[in-house]
């Protein structure tokens, strides 16, 4: 009878340990750079274009460190649960893809709100963006199905990039330690992330105009009602800057060089009910006469938000 006795594993050489450490450091650094690429680009616009205070930068970067840490801990957990397998990589890629998609969608909604309403979008308004998407696309003459196909293609490309990235640069397998040690670190780390999220929910950084805080807690951002229009300090600074720029650039016109321009603004008036734009009934006879004389230029403008409170 032959008895097989497993040999003790040989200790890892210093060279091998140094190589593993370098891979972990390189992979973690690359993860950080890619994770913060979109936030840095957004914050650059947030400060330079929309007059946000610099004090909003650090709270925003620290807040985004929470999902980044949670993603790393989940990747560790999936590695210990499934090993280095196709299922582990697919699940990790899907989770990373979902996090990146959520961040990109949020920044898109935030920039829309900043550009058209002068403030960061509130959480209860975000669903209306998607609900009104078909009407918006119809107003600008874009095909809904083409946009859906383009978004699906972009999503598939982003998922493929996440898959390829983890296949080449995933550093979590290089971290040694027993399953019990890794499990303890994962549980402790997720508990810390949960505690930080709880602290943020009870003390949001709205005083610093951190954008996610303003989205989740819009009432705490110093919003005031000005003749039916919601305005905060950020929107007021942007409006003041635009007015100062317009005043500085104003040049009086030479007498007789320009014609008078009269703009008619009528609440709830639609162009498809005006004979001026081809409606069967004669509803705008005076405007029709001016049009026939060539004394008028017709323009149709679509409002980005119809709100007549």
Blueprint of the fold:
Layout: H1 14-35, H2 37-48, H3 57-82, H4 86-117, H5 126-131, H6 133-139, H7 144-169, H8 179-202, H9 211-216, E1 224-226, E2 229-231, H10 233-249, H11 285-292
Helix pairs in contact: 2-4, 3-4, 3-8, 4-7
Summarize the structure.
This protein is mainly α and 309 residues long.
Explain the overall architecture.
With 309 residues, this protein is mostly helical. It has 2 domains: 19-226, no CATH class; 256-300, no CATH class. Helices cover 60% and strands 2% of the residues. The protein has 11 helices and 2 strands, in the order αααααααααββαα. It has helices spanning 14-35, 37-48, 57-82, 86-117, 126-131, 133-139, 144-169, 179-202, 211-216, 233-249, 285-292; strands spanning 224-226, 229-231. Strand 1 and strand 2 (229-231) form a beta hairpin. The mean pLDDT is 84.
What strand line-up does the widest sheet have? 1-2
Number of helices, where a helix is a run of at least 4 consecutive DSSP H or I residues: 11
Rg measurement, Å:
28 Å
Fraction of residues in H or I helices: 55-70%
Provide the domain count.
Answer: 2
The main sheet comes to: 2 strands, antiparallel
Low-confidence stretches: none
Beta-strand segment tally: 2
Beta-strand content estimate: under 5%
> What pattern of helices and strands is seen along the backbone?
HHHHHHHHHEEHH
Cα shape:
elongated
- Helix vs. strand class: mainly alpha
Let me know the average pLDDT.
84
State the oligomer: single chain
What's the end-to-end separation, in Å? 92 Å
């Amino acid at each position: 009878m032959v008895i097989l006795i497993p040999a003790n594993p040989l200790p890892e050489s210093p060279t091998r340990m140094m190589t593993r450490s370098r891979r972990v450091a390189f992979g973690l650094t690359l993860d950080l750079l890619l994770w913060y690429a979109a936030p840095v680009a957004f914050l650059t616009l947030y400060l330079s274009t929309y007059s946000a205070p610099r004090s909003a930068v650090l709270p925003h970067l620290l807040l985004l460190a929470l999902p980044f840490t949670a993603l790393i801990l989940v990747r560790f957990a999936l590695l210990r649960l499934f090993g280095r397998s196709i299922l582990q990589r697919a699940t990790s890629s899907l989770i990373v893809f979902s996090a990146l998609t959520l961040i990109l969608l949020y920044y898109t909604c935030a920039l829309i709100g900043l550009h058209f309403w002068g403030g960061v979008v509130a959480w209860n308004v975000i669903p209306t963006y998607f609900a009104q998407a078909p009407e918006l696309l119809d107003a600008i003459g874009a095909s809904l199905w083409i946009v859906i196909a383009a978004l699906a293609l972009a999503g598939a490309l982003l998922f493929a990039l996440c898959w390829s990235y983890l296949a080449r640069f995933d550093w979590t397998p290089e971290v040694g330690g027993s399953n019990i040690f890794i499990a303890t670190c994962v549980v402790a780390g997720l508990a810390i992330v949960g505690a930080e999220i709880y602290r943020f929910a009870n003390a949001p950084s709205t005083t610093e105009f951190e954008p996610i805080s303003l989205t989740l807690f819009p009432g705490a951002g110093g919003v005031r009602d000005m003749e039916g229009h919601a305005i905060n300090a950020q929107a007021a600074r942007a409006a003041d800057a635009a007015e100062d720029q317009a005043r500085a650039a104003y040049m009086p016109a030479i007498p007789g060089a320009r014609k008078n321009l009269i703009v008619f603004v009528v609440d709830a008036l639609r162009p498809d009910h005006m004979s001026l734009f081809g409606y069967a009934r004669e509803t705008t006879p005076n405007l029709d006469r001016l049009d026939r004389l060539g004394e008028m230029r017709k323009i149709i403008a679509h409002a980005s938000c119809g709100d007549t409170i």
